[in-house]
Amino acid sequence: MLYDLADIMALRFAGHVRNIPIELPQSFHGNIFSEETLLALCRQKVLTENRNHRSYSLTPAGIALLEHLGYTYQLDSRQPAQAKLERRLMSAAVSALFCRAGFNVFLDKLEGLTSELTYLSSAVLRRDPSSAASRVFAGVRFTGIAHAHKRALLVHYIDDGFMYFTSEMRMFHGAVSALSCPFGVVYTGKSYEQITQLLTASKAFSKSKSRAGDALTYRIAAERTMCPLYLVEATETGARHLMLLQQKGYRAKIANYALQEQYLPPPQDAPMLDAMMGGTPFLVCVDMDIQRIRASCRYARANGYTELAAVALPAQIGALARWMEDMFPCELYAIEESALLSIYPELTLQETEREPVLQRGGGCYVPVV
């Protein structure tokens, strides 16, 4: 069997996250996560579909192959119980999201976050019993920490439960303090619609008495968060969304593209706005920064405006409409991903090369990156 770089990356990913969701190819189209790649590796018996029929994991043969290439992973003695499996599948989806956005997702220690474009899964961090960090982070709900371009991100795959706001923000700030860069929060999930449904449901406003009031729903935590908070779905579109956040001046550039000759600069006292469309405040919501959206609504209300206008990707429009429904009237416009790529060609998601890695007998054609 001749393995290529995408095969080996898929196996490394399986070793890193332990369980690859079977439905992952429906959300991500890269070579690493394609159904073709995963099924071919199953046929070679280096990957296997688990008895739960919800995930793939490495086999002993897959572990041995990676060991031959210098990558050490361990097998589970048995598959995790339902609750733990759910958390693993969520964590794997987030790792895939950052992988498609060009981040190195194979970190296993906090020290790796000193480099930009890196992502550390909290599930991986907790695996090492010898690490002090694994004990400190044992009780947190967040999914991981990313070091994007000039920004540290706390990442949550959200649900209808609670997170421990004060404890987690304190741990996050301590973990990234050496990076000396601004902070941000990412709420992610299967889709933009699902994320906003969770954040706007009646249960999202309920309170918990556990941990002396530290346990908050994700919606209440969002309202207490002072830094930018982005809603990002775990899909190809979400990966491009993460890449856009790292582009300098993207809001002004998209506003100019969307409005053309209708573009007017925003008021000087309104940095949360991106333009004026005639007499209407205009927002670029492709970043889905709900803190900035909330600030824009407050500004519009305080200054006597009756409506906002906003532009977002087609996949975000329904979610944005739900979010704005009880907040402030807003006229929504869509910008196609193809148009976004014409503005920023660098948002094209990169593919792992289909170059051979091993000859029959074990010789390497090319080094594995």
Can you describe this structure?
It is built from 15 helices and 15 strands. The longest helix has 19 residues, at 82-100. Helix 13 links the parallel strand 13 (280-284) and strand 14. With 369 residues, the chain is of the alpha/beta class. The chain is globular, with a radius of gyration of 22 Å. The chain has 3 domains: 1-79, Arc Repressor Mutant, subunit A (Orthogonal Bundle); 81-246, no CATH class; 250-347, no CATH class. The two termini are 20 Å apart.
The number of helical segments is: 15
Strand content: 15-25%
Radius of gyration, in angstroms, nearest whole number: 22 Å
Q: Got a strand count?
A: 15
Structural class category: alpha/beta
Regions with pLDDT < 50 over 5+ consecutive residues? 365-369
- What form results from the Cα inertia axes? globular
Number of domains: 3
Biggest beta sheet attributes = 5 strands, mixed
State the share of residues found in helices, binned by percent.
25-40%
Mean of residue pLDDT? 91
SSE pattern:
HEHHEEHHEHHEEEHEHEHEHHEEEHEHEH
Strand order of the largest sheet: 4-5-6-8-10
Task: Note the gap between the termini.
Answer: 20 Å
